[in-house]
Design brief:
With about 350 residues, the protein is an alpha+beta fold. It is built from 13 helices and nine strands. It has two domains: about 200 residues, no CATH class; about 120 residues, Immunoglobulin-like.
Amino acid sequence: MAHALSDLARLIDSTTQNLIQFKAISAVYDILQGGVPSIYGFDYLINENNYTNFGSRTYYSFGPDFNDESIFINVANALYQGNPSAQSAFNSIAGGFTLSEKLASVYNFLVSDSEETASGRAAFASQSSFYSHKAAELGIPGDTGAAVVAFGALLNVLIRDGYKGGADAVNDLTDAVFQGTALLPESGAVFTPLETADGVNFDFDDNDFGGGNSPAFIGDPSNSVLYEYPYETTGDSLIFAEGVIPISDLDPGEAGFMETVIFGTAYFPNDPGNVGTLSLYENGTYFCEFDTELPAVRALWEGDLLIDTFTIESLDGTQKDVSFTIVGVDEIPYFSMF
């Protein structure tokens, strides 16, 4: 059992798997728990993983050999599944409504601004099928599970290739352990931030994990509230819908909308400008209204579509087009939206 820094150095220097585990534990715990474990904590986690072969060992078989990427994924998965606070921390990192949006959030968080590239983002996102398949194997299916796998896989690449930021800090901590200058407590439940743990020889020479501005993720207008007021029935020519457009943003204070709607186009079949009006509020509440007495609406026959598109914008400048549709029914249009 490791009691001193020199014991931990010997442990992680004894096998390549132990070294990779040390780096994976350092990165994952720093991000999801706010710091790295104590010397005893590292010793326990590494030896427990070796004994159980990351949970794959059975009475009849020791289980498969794991490469570096799989070790990072296993460490991320074990902490995510076994620790509610880690789950909460990860869910706040992997923002978005779809897998592609969650992957974009993970990439933005882990990769420093100076290291981000379009090709890097594309390569990371292109493995989405692998992430989903691996997550199902590990018992965390769904988009969040795939994002956990992607999180571990990307950490492996960043640390292996010495990327700036938190990845470099993990490598600094590894060097500090071997030099005997790391500032890790012998035991205890308190986690030490990377930039403290790597000691004075590496102090503040790089940034921790956490990238720059994250784009907002904007959902679609809700279908929960839908009103229909045919003029012939009520004497009111207005048809309208109200609801909420969901939005999330990892950056504090930016999960909201600009209240100025950018008007776009209506299609029936080539009319310029908008037929309806859209009012949008910062919290995502909206009100969309059409006048059935307008020529473009009155011209609808059963099955005809009039699609009105507006461009909305979040507080951080992220834009999205949202569309509202009137469908002609027996010359009395009703309102629907998508």
